[in-house]
């Protein structure tokens, strides 16, 4: 045995000194198997750990019901050549070109066209289940399944990057353009899709518990609950992504995400969003964090409707909504329909209409603070209508409202009904039209405190018998505290007994506003402008 070893060693040394080159092992990275035909592709299942390189277009028409390749842990480079007419019709789980791609498996540069795939759970164009890497790949065609249904992978716990789909996808739950269910990473990917499902339905991901970034969706997304242009249900992280198109559902419907419990940032949406309840331009229901997002959108629903969020219990910061929001009934806002969360540094513009609890920024807000926000929205409704908030039980500070306000009862240029709540360092510039409890700043104040605020604009009562005021419509039993607050008595044709009336000239002079902080909170262009907030300069 020892002699054989020395003989082999001598042969190798002779080859080396003679200048010959050793040929890499067949199936290695340097010498991959070449895939030219459908049969070659089918034979990949015979050696699952090897490296493969596709060198020609492949037509799978001869395979009437392709058997997915199981537990692939090698490397397959499609090099941009096409695989066409992939047909699968199974009642089993884990359905796709590959059944499973393991953590060491890698798929790149694969192009699959005209797929026709039907399976049960974990159904995808490239993989039923991916825990490896898929990159620079494309899939087009039709994919159908029950749960975890996606254009690239049904279920992804690995990495999918720089990939595209153009497909019709149908399923029941966890249905998405790139992946049905994601607990891994999806980045720099695009989907142009028509997707139909029941719950957790998204243009990119049906249900996300991983990371999504730099991705885009366009198309039509239809479902019942947790329906989103990008993601149906999110418990992970989403950043720098976009969605556009038509999103339709029943409850928890959003232009970007149907229901969010994770973190969403630097993303934007455009298109049309339609639903019944908890419908928003970015998110339908939010209990997570949303920051630096932008919505330019039409949103239509019955209750809990917002240009950004339908119903919020989370944190909402530094967002912009430019929306037309149409609520058939209650809790409608230019930014948020109903809020019990924290809302800071947001802007809303556009048009908002509803029945009760309608606001340029928020329809109804309770508990947590509203700070450094402003709205420039035309607001129309029936009762509890405000330029910023329709009904507020939340502290409000450093905010302002522009845009005309129309309604019947409890109508305010800033807040329609202020319930046991402090409003400080805020103002309104708008025309307010209504019937009863009508105020330039607040329509009805109940046990609330208002400090360092002002209003200027126009009050248009629909009846001479209405309870109305240039600043306050009514302070219930005079139970609140109105302190150092003003209104422009030349702009309003009615008297106000609660705030201090000043002329237009006086309203543009710093000395009028006794005790106001013009160093850190307020600023004024002396003699030319009303006071404005430093925080809102940008």
Concise summary:
By secondary structure, the protein is mainly beta. The protein is built from 3 helices and 67 strands.
How would you summarize the topology of this molecule?
Layout: H1 2-17, E1 33-35, H2 38-42, E2 51-54, E3 58-59, E4 75-77, E5 82-84, E6 87-89, E7 98-101, E8 106-108, E9 111-118, E10 121-124, E11 127-130, E12 133-135, E13 138-144, E14 147-150, E15 153-156, E16 159-161, E17 164-170, E18 173-176, E19 179-182, E20 185-187, E21 190-196, E22 199-202, E23 205-208, E24 211-213, E25 216-222, E26 225-228, E27 231-234, E28 237-239, E29 242-248, E30 251-254, E31 257-260, E32 263-265, E33 268-274, E34 277-280, E35 283-286, E36 289-291, E37 294-301, E38 303-306, E39 309-312, E40 315-317, E41 320-327, E42 332-333, E43 336-339, E44 342-344, E45 347-353, E46 356-359, E47 362-366, E48 370-371, E49 374-380, E50 383-386, E51 389-393, E52 396-397, E53 400-402, E54 405-406, E55 409-412, E56 415-419, E57 422-434, E58 436-439, E59 442-446, E60 449-461, E61 468-469, E62 472-475, E63 481-483, E64 486-488, E65 500-502, H3 504-507, E66 522-523, E67 532-533
Parallel strand pairs: 1-2, 2-4, 3-5, 4-8, 5-9, 6-9, 7-11, 8-12, 9-13, 10-14, 11-15, 12-16, 13-17, 14-18, 15-19, 16-20, 17-21, 18-22, 19-23, 20-24, 21-25, 22-26, 23-27, 24-28, 25-29, 26-30, 27-31, 28-32, 29-33, 30-34, 31-35, 32-36, 33-37, 34-38, 35-39, 36-40, 37-41, 38-42, 39-43, 40-44, ...
Antiparallel strand pairs: 66-67
């Amino acid at each position: 045995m020892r002699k054989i070893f020395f003989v082999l060693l001598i042969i190798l040394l002779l080859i080396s000194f003679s200048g010959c080159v050793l040929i890499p092992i067949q199936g290695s990275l340097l010498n991959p198997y070449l895939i030219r035909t459908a049969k070659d592709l089918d034979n990949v299942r015979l050696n699952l750990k090897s490296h493969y390189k596709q060198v020609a277009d492949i037509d799978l028409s001869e395979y009437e019901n392709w058997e997915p390749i199981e537990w692939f842990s090698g490397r397959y480079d499609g090099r941009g050549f096409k695989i066409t007419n992939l047909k699968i019709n199974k009642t089993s789980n884990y359905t796709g070109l590959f059944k499973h791609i393991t953590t060491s498996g890698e798929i790149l540069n694969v192009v699959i066209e005209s797929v026709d795939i039907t399976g049960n759970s974990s159904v995808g164009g490239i993989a039923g289940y991916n825990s490896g890497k898929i990159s620079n790949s494309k899939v087009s065609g039709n994919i159908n399944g029950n749960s975890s249904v996606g254009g690239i992978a049904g279920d992804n716990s690995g990495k999918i990057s720089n990939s595209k789909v153009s497909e019709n996808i149908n399923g029941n739950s966890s249905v998405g353009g790139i992946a049905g269910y994601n607990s891994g990473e999806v980045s720099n990917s695009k989907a142009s899709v028509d997707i139909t499902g029941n719950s957790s339905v998204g243009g990119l991901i049906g249900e996300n518990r991983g990371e999504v970034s730099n991705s885009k969706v366009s198309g039509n997304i239809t479902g019942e609950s947790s329906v989103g242009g990008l993601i149906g249900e999110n418990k992970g992280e989403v950043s720098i992504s976009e969605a556009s198109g038509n999103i339709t559902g029943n409850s928890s419907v959003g232009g970007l995400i149907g229901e969010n419990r994770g973190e969403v940032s630097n993303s934007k949406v455009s298109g049309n969003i339609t639903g019944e309840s908890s419908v928003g331009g970015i998110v339908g229901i939010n209990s997570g964090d949303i920051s630096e997002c932008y919505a330019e959108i039409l949103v239509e629903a019955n209750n809990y409707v917002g240009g950004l969020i339908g119903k919020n219990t989370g944190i909402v910061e530094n967002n912009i909504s430019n929306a037309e929001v149409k609520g058939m009934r209650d809790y409608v806002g230019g930014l948020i329909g109903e809020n019990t969360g924290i809302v800071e540094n947001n802007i809303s513009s556009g048009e908002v209409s509803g029945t009760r609890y309608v606001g340029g920024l928020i329809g109804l807000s309770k508990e947590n603070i509203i700070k450094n926000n402003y709205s420039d929205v035309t607001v129309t409704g029936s009762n509890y209508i405000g330029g910023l908030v329709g009904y507020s039980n939340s502290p409000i500070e450093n905010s302002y409202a522009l845009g005309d306000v129309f309604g019947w009862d409890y109508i305010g240029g800033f807040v329609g009904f202020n319930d046991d709540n402090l409003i400080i360092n805020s103002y309104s510039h708008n025309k307010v039209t209504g019937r009863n409890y009508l105020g330039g700043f607040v329509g009805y104040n109940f046990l609330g405190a208002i400090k360092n605020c002002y209003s200027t604009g126009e009050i248009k009562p629909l009846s001479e018998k209405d309870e109305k005021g240039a600043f306050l419509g009514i302070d219930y039993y005079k139970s609140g505290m109105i302190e150092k607050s003003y209104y422009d008595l030349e702009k309003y044709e009615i008297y106000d007994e609660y705030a201090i009336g000043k002329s237009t000239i006086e309203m543009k002079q710093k000395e009028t506003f006794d005790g106001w902080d013009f160093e850190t909170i307020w600023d004024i262009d002396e003699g030319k402008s009303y006071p404005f907030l430093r925080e809102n300069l940008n």
